[in-house]
Amino acid sequence: MENNTASLKLFALNSNPELSQKIATELGADLCSASVKHFSDGEIQINIDESVRGADVFVVQSISDPVNENFMELMIMIDALRRASAETINVVIPYYGYARADRKARAREPITAKMVANFIQTAGADRVVSMDLHAGQLQGFFNIPVDHLLAIFTQVDYFKKIGLDKDVVVIAPDHSSAKKARNMAQLLKAPIAIIDKRDENSLETIHDQTVIGNVAGKNCIILDDMIDTGVRMTDAAKALKMANAKDIYACATHAVFSGKAVESLRDSDIKQVIVTDTIAIPEEKQFAQLKVLSVAPVFAQAISLIYHNQSVDSLFEQHEI
Predict the structure, then answer these.
(1) Per the UniProt record, which EC number(s) apply here (predicted)?
(2) Residues in binding site for Mg(2+)
(3) Is 197 a catalytic residue?
(4) Closest by CA position to 56, among listed 305, 248, 249, 319
(5) What parts of the chain have a pLDDT lower than 50?
């Protein structure tokens, strides 16, 4: 990517340095120097080692495990940049933690996703760039521009590359995921099916699920925005196997992989687990069926477009979903 990015400053914090470096490489830029120290009592100190006065700054930080630590790093960095007279502070959050707390499901419950948005704005951010938010309406929690990027085109390109665009069904693991599944199915020119879970509170999930749609003898792609504990994916895979599906693929943008997710996925009926690198996956959480797609090119293109005051929508104009 050849662009004039003379006043663009790109910083990486500790959540995902590998993705940050890939983005820098795609941009043909260097990561700027900053030191992040953690004191023994948990306090964080950040020093920016070069001038950012008048610069358009982009900070890459996922709000992933350890969630609160990474979030505080981001807040402190924004404050440091604001006090150092950066012209604009653009926060690149590949994975937006706390996004699932986006509404009051019960009495006296917080809307933490909105609180996080308030903190980011109050600290001094001018723009947020994120990918596959758990709920699209999170963009409305901000009073600053939010660019919502999509991993679906990267995922579809991979499936086409391995020949999984024929004789395939895209699976929504529940009714709320149907729109996302329909979008991928449209790009793959494939039908969709839905896992109908009868009792959301049941522990015996496999016995309470029905596959709506024809999957017998078909390859199946279970699509979700994230894989956390892995229960939804593995239960959906069991239901699909009972419905005589052929090969089963699990596809998600964010690899949260908490608890016993890795063991569950590794020992399941799933042939391959496809995720992106929005969250850094440590070596101990990698396994044979895992395939990680990089979304660095998407973020790099978005950053370049923002820096040059061009429309980010141009990234997706060639696709119709």
Answers:
(1) 2.7.6.1
(2) 134, 174
(3) yes
(4) 305
(5) 2, 202-206
What is the rounded CA–CA span in Å between residue 206 and residue 232? 10
Closest to 233 in 3D by CA, of 252, 254, 259, 258: 252
The closest of 295, 297, 261 to 279, measured between CA atoms, is: 295
pLDDT value of residue 198: 62
d(C-alpha 63, C-alpha 263), whole Å: 24
Domains of the chain with bracketed CATH? 8-150+296-315 (3.40.50.2020), 152-293 (3.40.50.2020)
Binding positions for D-ribose 5-phosphate are 224
Q: Cα–chain-centroid distance for residue 126?
A: 21
The token duo for 33 is 């120097």
pLDDT in tens, 59-81: 999 999 999 999 999 999 999 99
Question: What stretches of the chain show up as alpha helix (H) in DSSP?
Answer: 17-27, 67-83, 112-123, 152-161, 178-188, 231-242, 261-266, 296-307
pTM of the model: 0.92
Binding-site residues sit at: 41-43, 134, 174, 224
Q: Put residue 42 in one of left, alpha, beta given phi > 0 → left and psi -120 to 50 → alpha.
A: left
Tell me which of 9, 197, 218, 238 is the catalytic residue: 197
